[in-house]
């Protein structure tokens, strides 16, 4: 795969296949980059049109699908990511530095000295302070939004606690609308987050790219999504339901334990979708639980009714055989995109633009996959 706009421009002169696709035209690299950045609607429409063609030709059957996510590096360095407490300290220091430079500039004007170096130093610090102000405001706004979202659950827990009079126990804590000191944000791409890559066990500035793949033989990507959180569960239902207005909803969706969310399962079932979600083993059955010294606390148990029901269902032969399709459908797709097509890092910045770029990558994958299926 070729993802650089400059390399694509060169390929329109050197690569016969690219020249054929480009109708022997040679768009400038800036034109290519601008198109990728500003044509989200056209890219999404083309993605949906390819899926409709695949269904009409019999290549796509939308019954069982698999969902998974993979971490894709953002166009930002993790070393440009700062903690909330560090941002506040730097803002205070920059305010002091700017005030000193202003005093030096006034003194230079009064003594007729040449203050050429002062404007550059002043502008550099003011630019950095503006970035820090924006990052700090963003963290505080996100914290307030999360606190408001968590308030209904807190009120419910508090009401249950207050109703249980005579019982000992700590009252639930209200949601805090202040960012924790260790909350981090990138100055280069504020939408991206520090995420751990499971293969390398290291933290990278990245996005969580989601893909829903047909599990009935075609391995075509039927919908995509990008989230700025390492967890998969919060976007589970929204990602699957986004198919409704493009290609239609599936009958069954297969997901690993990272998507285990009671609310998402209920939302999918309301739409007539049957989710099969893996449920982790209780702590008492894990191999490392058999230690010579007993644990100080009671190990965590699976107690939620929907989890127990899902776990019992997956232990049946029919559901177990169906769930085994997940690994052999969605995970190879990520392997092809990363290892064969070579897409491991986003070129654009910001969640909206990154989502468009991921849709474009999925569109390219589907075109390659359809060509392979038709040739078989």
UniProtKB/TrEMBL annotation:
Gene Ontology annotations of biological process type: DNA transposition
GO molecular function: DNA binding; transposase activity
Top-level taxon of origin: Bacteria
InterPro entries: Transposase_11
Domain Transposase IS4-like: 198-367
Region spans: Disordered: 147-193
Organism: Komagataeibacter xylinus
Compositionally skewed regions (Basic and acidic residues) per UniProt: 153-165
Name used for this protein in its record: IS5/IS1182 family transposase
């Amino acid at each position: 795969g070729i993802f650089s706009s400059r390399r694509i421009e060169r390929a329109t002169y050197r690569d016969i296949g690219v020249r054929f696709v480009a109708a022997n035209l040679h768009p400038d690299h800036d034109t290519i980059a601008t198109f990728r950045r500003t044509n989200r609607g056209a890219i999404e429409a083309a993605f949906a049109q390819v899926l409709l063609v695949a269904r009409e030709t019999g290549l796509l059957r939308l019954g069982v699908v698999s969902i998974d996510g993979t971490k894709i590096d953002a166009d930002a360095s993790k070393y440009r990511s700062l903690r909330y407490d560090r941002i506040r300290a730097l803002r205070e220091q920059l305010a002091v530095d700017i005030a000193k430079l202003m005093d030096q500039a006034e003194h230079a004007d009064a003594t007729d000295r040449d203050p050429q170096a002062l404007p550059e130093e002043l502008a550099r610090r003011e630019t950095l302070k503006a970035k820090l102000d924006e990052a700090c405001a963003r963290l505080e706004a996100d914290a307030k939004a999360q606190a408001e979202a968590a308030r209904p659950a807190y009120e419910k827990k508090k009401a249950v606690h207050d109703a249980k009079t005579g019982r000992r126990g700590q009252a639930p804590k209200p949601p805090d609308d202040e960012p924790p000191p260790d909350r981090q944000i990138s100055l280069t791409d504020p939408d991206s987050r520090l995420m751990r890559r499971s293969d390398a066990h290291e933290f990278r500035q990245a996005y969580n790219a989601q893909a829903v793949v047909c599990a009935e033989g075609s391995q075509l990507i039927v919908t995509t999504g990008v989230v700025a959180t390492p967890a998969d569960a919060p976007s589970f239902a929204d990602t699957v339901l986004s198919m409704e207005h493009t290609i239609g909803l599936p009958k069954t969706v297969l997901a690993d334990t990272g998507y285990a969310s009671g609310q998402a399962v209920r939302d999918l079932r309301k739409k007539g979708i049957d989710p099969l979600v893996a449920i982790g083993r209780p702590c008492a059955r894990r191999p490392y639980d058999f230690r010579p010294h007993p644990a100080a606390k009671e190990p965590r148990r699976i107690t939620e009714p929907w989890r127990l029901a899902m776990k019992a269902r997956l232990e049946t032969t029919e559901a177990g055989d169906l769930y085994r399709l997940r690994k052999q459908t969605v995970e190879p797709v990520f392997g092809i995109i990363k290892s064969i097509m070579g897409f491991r890092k986003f070129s654009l910045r910001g969640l909206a633009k990154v989502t468009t770029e991921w849709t474009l990558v999925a569109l390219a994958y589907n075109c390659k996959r359809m060509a392979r299926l038709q040739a078989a």
